[in-house]
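Ticket #4471: structure export looks truncated?
Reporter: QA, pipeline team
Priority: medium

Steps to reproduce: submit the single chain below to the structure queue and open the exported record.
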Amino acid sequence: MLNGCAKRGAPPGGPEDKSPPRIISSSPADGDTLVPNDSRIEIDFDEPVKSDETTVMIYPTMKDLFVRFHSKSLEIQHRTPLQENTTYTILLTPNFSDRHGNRIGKTVEIAFSTGSAIDTLELRGNIVDGELFLDIGGAAVAVYADSTMSEPPMRLTFSAEDGSFKIRHLPFKRVWVFAGIGIGNELQWGKAIKIAVPHNATLLPQNRKLTLVLAKNDTLPPKIISTSAVDSFTFRLKFDEFSNIDTIAESLNAKIWLDPTDSTSVLARMKNSPLGKS
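Actual output as written to the record:
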């Protein structure tokens, strides 16, 4: 039998590592200008980091981009030259971690420019759940040049645990800001669990914080509840929710306008013939 109790103390090798990795240096450094187009992009850390390419991004996005991890550093390899007179931002997402799984827990940015100046516009705000009235951390916040999202976002970040977010070095004064939960790194907005969609563009700079309110993502099309004739040329369609009148007009080949007495109904006048005639 063993006499006495086991001694308490730190496990072999020293105390348990509970600290996230810290950046020691980067090349280019944050704020550098006149960076050559063929520059190597490297970031050095104070400890070995986990190899996870999904936690490292660069904006504007580039083709033929590869992330290589080397214990305490990472390298972003690009086969095509960097664009002239362009501000680039390297993004480490909140899930970036060391090999013990200690996440940095916030978005970390490094920005540099291939031109003589770096973009300086900045956007700040917070993400709020519209149902729970709580600040939401971990939400993706994407900035687009227009509302169609036809091109990749200019910038992407993630809200901190207190719901706050900050996006630096934006190139345009007029931007469209979207936010969502559950969209993944591929920004699949249609799969969002909750989403915030802007009604208007945001003009920068602005002195106040932008509040984005998340709501459940409605992925179901509207349903027709009833139809009724208004006169020989016009009929009314009542839906179970507010509907996009442009989409309805295309499908019916009719002139469509909202019913001023009911926001879930539209009035339609056929372009080719009176109602009931071929």
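Status: closed, not a bug. The export was complete when the record was re-opened. Leaving a note from the reviewer for reference: The longest helix spans residues 245-252.
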